[in-house]
Amino acid sequence: MADNNSRPKRYAPWYNVSPGNLPLPGLVSIFHRISGLGLFMMLWLLLWLFDSSMASAEGYDWARSVLGGGFVKLLMTGLLWAFMHHFCAGIRFLLLDMHVGIELAQARRSSGVVFVVSLLLTLILGAMLVW
Amino acid sequence: MVNRVITGAHYGFSSWLAQRVTACAMAVYTVVFLTLLIVVRPGDYATWHGMFVPVWMRLATLLFWLSLCYHAWVGVRDIIMDYIKPTAARLVAHGLVIFALLGLAAWSVQILWRA
Questions:
Q1: Residue B115 needs a FRET pair 20 to 30 A away by CA distance; which of A58, B1, B5, B72 works?
Q2: Measured between CB atoms, which of B46, B48, B76 is closest to A37?
């Protein structure tokens, strides 16, 4: 009974991994997961719109009118950002898999690049294709 | 004592690899498709539908969707394994995701080969 008290206590290290406390590479990682899940959840909508737009001229017009709505445009911009982040972060992870840029300074810089490039691509493609 | 190894290294290697191979395929298609969108600028049904008439484009698009379904399966399964602990709930979630993705894959075939 007293054994537990006499044993030296060893505490597991505790890390605060809430998003507000993560360094940039950690944010890239968790947002890679969130964006992937979000894209998965919205696949049905994208495929539905693709289906309609491919089926007939009326369906194409209907899909365009749906995509013309303000809320849908916001949603599509969000999905575009999710896709672009997932795309850029994915390329970064593939490079890390091949041991490219695994030094801390490089990894931090490349995670910043992921956020900047994916936001820029979202702005450019969003302006060209969504709005 | 029987020394059986039922867990350990290499257990998820094929999934890990498949996720990366499908990612590369989708990345290539994404660049091609976006380039086509920007060059062709499909503004009406005939042009839009016409983009998917060539067999290579149908096949490429189908491979994109199949890759996406496989890729999403590996990713969503990872998320389910990380956050859903009770076995029953996890099995139900896995089943729902599998059926959803199989349905989406079949749907994409139907869309592309409707004639």
A1: B72
A2: B76
User: DSSP secondary-structure letter at A12?
Assistant: P
- Helices A43-55, A24-41: axis angle to 10 degrees equals 50
Chain B environment of A97 (Cβ under 8 Å): 20
User: Considering the domain boundaries, does residue A102 fall inside one?
Assistant: yes
Q: Which CATH architecture has domain B13-112?
A: Up-down Bundle (1.20)
| Domain segments of chain B as ranges | 13-112
Measured between CA atoms, how close is B75 to chain A, in angstroms?
8
A91 vs B27, B76, B110: nearest CB: B27
Burial-class residue A11 by CB neighbours within 10 Å (0-12, 13-18, 19+).
exposed
Residue type, B19: Q
Instruction: Calculate ∠ Cα A105-A123-A128, nearest 5°.
Output: 140
Contacts of A84 in chain B (CB under 8 A): none
Q: ipTM of the predicted structure?
A: 0.89
CB atoms A129 and B37 under 8 Å: yes
Residues B60-70, buried b or exposed e (16+ Cβ, 10 A)? Answer: bbbebbbbbbb
Q: A113 lies in which domain range?
A: 23-130
